[in-house]
Sequence to fold (335 residues):
Amino acid sequence: MTKQRILTGITTTGTPHLGNYVGAIRPAIEASKSDDNLSFYFLADYHALIKCGDPDQVHSSTAEIAATWLACGLDPEKAVFYRQSDIPEIPELCWLLTCLTAKGLMNRAHAYKAAVAENEEAGEDPDFGINMGLYSYPILMAADILIFNANKVPVGKDQIQHVEMARDIAGRFNHHYSEKFVLPEAQVDEHVAVLQGLDGRKMSKSYGNTIPLFLPPKKLQKHINKIKTNLLEPGEPKDPETSTVFQVWQAFANAEQLEYMRTQFADGIAWGEAKKQLCALIDEEIAPAREKYEELMAKPQEVEKILLQGAEKAREFAKPLVQELRHAVGIRKLS
Ligand code: TRP
Fold:
């Protein structure tokens, strides 16, 4: 049986938080363990440049995200784990795709449209502050996906449109030149929790409501204490369904622990106590990874080596495909 190719990219801006861990890192690493799958996971550092002009931030975020995935148990022997900018075939494919992508398709991209709408609302020129990277980034994302002929692309809901665009672009290439690309599919796992942040909205860097993944335990507790609760006193029964503390508990608990906390809520556990237990539960799961993370962050040369090996592995797929594509579009030797 040929393996399903699963591919996803992580933009290298910011520090991984609990929401990233629960919603993306943990399930992706789980999926990579199956022998039915071949996983391609990569650091999307070219994508980072679209929204971040701070070189130090792009650089440190790349190191942190790489160390996080390895510390959480991604096996770089089994999965293909690489940095986008180590694969020159990706920007090359991006150009081939750019030349057959309709401008009108890019006009319809949500991220671009949202930026235009924001400008219009502020009374600015519609294109104010919008670079060509943002405008055409669905094409770069299509190149990321198509270069490895990925079947499944696990993403958050906000990225479904981009995967559909990659499909459109692949179909157009296949139709105009010849069948070169697999049509990828977005995979939105409904079972995976979308973690709530400190204010109860989706945990997201853009809302400033995150809990970083690898905080020392004391700081972790401090952050957890900031999770918004209501004014119910100790002894008053609390509703698990509307509680962020319970929702986060659920993302880390086994069936027994889940039942336990449900009972505690009914019995009126104090918020402070619930938060203490929540911190202990999270810490139990992530403490070993945190230790590994600290080790890896202290040895960037080791992480670098792993990434370069990953790039080599990735290019074994990418190089022959780009050769074929060049030929297909007419970029060929003269004799
Ligand atoms: N754009 C994605 C995000 O912001 C990250 C990404 C880049 C990606 N290339 C990708 C995701 C390819 C899946 C496949 O989340």
In short: Residues 300-329 form the longest helix (30 residues). Strands lie at 4-11, 37-44, 80-83, 152-154, 185-187. The domain at 214-294 is CATH 1.10.240.10 (Tyrosyl-Transfer RNA Synthetase).
